[in-house]
Design brief:
By secondary structure, this protein is an alpha/beta fold. The protein contains eight helices and four strands.
Length: about 160
């Protein structure tokens, strides 16, 4: 069984920039939708809300909204968020009172990996920030695999779209 790729907001917003051919961009996103339908790619609801905030009116937000209906895994129990924050408290920006996508992405990946399925967090959030730990460092601390968006595309065998 292929791994489950849990993609964060940064990586979702990067997707349109990776497909170098305007003529093939719809085919590229059709294949990504097939991966979501097959249960191999997912994102939490909060990532969709983030995309609306940062990319409303753009193709990526329209695609995320449409593709979200095909997800098999996207909810995460609060206990998993507590596990993530117990190990990586610095992942959360405590000045922000709302739920935070990096915490949910890590929690979802941790929850699925606990079932025995291989999971990979897909993120472009790999630089230390002044207000919180980056998701890439949190994955390392949690024992989760992580990779860039381009690496995920290669791993899925879609590198001809890059």
């Amino acid at each position: 069984m292929p791994p489950l790729y849990v993609i964060d907001t940064h990586a979702l917003l990067t997707l349109p920039t990776l497909c170098t051919s305007e003529d093939r961009v719809y085919s590229f996103f059709d294949l990504l939708t097939e991966e979501i339908s097959a249960g191999n790619l997912t994102f939490p609801n909060l990532a969709m809300q983030d995309c609306k905030k940062f990319a409303e009116g753009e193709f990526i937000y329209t695609w995320v909204k449409a593709a979200s209906a095909h997800r098999k895994q996207y909810r995460v129990d609060n206990g998993w968020q507590e596990d993530v924050l117990g190990t990586c408290e610095e992942l959360a920006d405590f000045d922000d009172e709302c739920e935070q996508t990096p915490v949910l992405v890590a929690s979802l990946a941790l929850m699925v990996s606990d079932t025995g399925r291989s999971t990979v967090v897909v993120t472009e959030d790999n630089r230390e920030l002044p207000n919180r730990m980056c998701l890439g460092d949190a994955c390392q601390a949690l024992g989760l695999a992580s990779m860039s968006t381009a690496d995920m595309i290669h791993a899925m065998g879609m590198e001809t779209y890059l």
